[in-house]
Amino acid sequence: MTDEEFAQLKTNGVKVNYYAVCPRKLWFYSHDIRMERESDRVSLGRLLHERAYRDKPRRELLIDNLIKIDLLESEGKVLEVKYSRRMKEAARLQVLYYLYYLKRQGVTGLTGELRFPKERRRQSVTLTEEAEREVEAALREIRRIEQLPAPPHVEFMPICRRCAYIELCWG
Questions:
Q1: Over its length of 171 residues, how does the chain's per-residue pLDDT go in tens digits?
Q2: CA-based nearest residue to 66, from 17, 101, 108
Q3: Fold of 3-170
Q4: Phi/psi of residue 67, each to 5°?
Q5: Residue 161 CB neighbours (<10 A)
Q6: Are strands 77-81 and 111-116 parallel, antiparallel or unpaired?
Q7: Distance between CA 70 and CA 112 in Å, rounded?
């Protein structure tokens, strides 16, 4: 991906996560239709994020007013804390995007880690060439979905029951 194309496609981590979860949710979020404020699950996740791993030398960084990462300073890890492993592929893609973004900014040598404190689990995330291609494809597809005139149709999935956007989609 050229620097020019990346400059046009770069986005925030939430959109990358939502892309992996549901293109309809991504479309709503990208068009400033935000339902997360009303969601108890989102509030629980935010609380867990704030309280987890207080003993670690962790620093939250906002980069280019676009991506917000947690960095474990002593370990050189980009950390993402999630409520559960149900959406681990979306979380993995989000961390890969952070690593990719940082690499494009000249920051190398970092690894990623997903942490699920309630389950006492972790998963390492490494930016490989294949993962870079996956991120680039996701960025292109995110842009395509954002430019649709209406939200894309999706089939009902089990995760819809817990989604903050359930009323918009299935109300």
A1: 999 999 999 999 999 999 999 999 999 999 999 876 665 555 555 555 555 656 665 667 888 988 888 766 667 788 888 777 788 899 999 999 999 999 999 998 889 999 887 788 889 999 999 999 999 999 999 999 999 999 999 999 998 888 888 888 887
A2: 101
A3: Lambda Exonuclease; Chain A (3.90.320)
A4: -120, 140
A5: 9
A6: parallel
A7: 10
- With tokens 């003993």, the residue in question is 55
Any idea where the domains of the chain sit in the sequence?
3-170
Q: Output the CA torsion sign for 117, 114, 93, 32.
A: positive
What's the CA gap between 150 and 31, in Å, rounded?
10
Helix pair angle (88-104, 129-146), 10° resolution = 100
Distances (CA, A) of 136 to 11, 31, 63, 117, 159: 11, 22, 19, 30, 26
For residue 66 the two structure tokens come to: 């676009």
* Amino acid at site 76: G
Q: Which residue type does 156 have? A: F
Calpha distance 165→135 (Å, rounded):
25
Quickly count: other Cβ atoms within 10 Å of residue 12's Cβ: 18
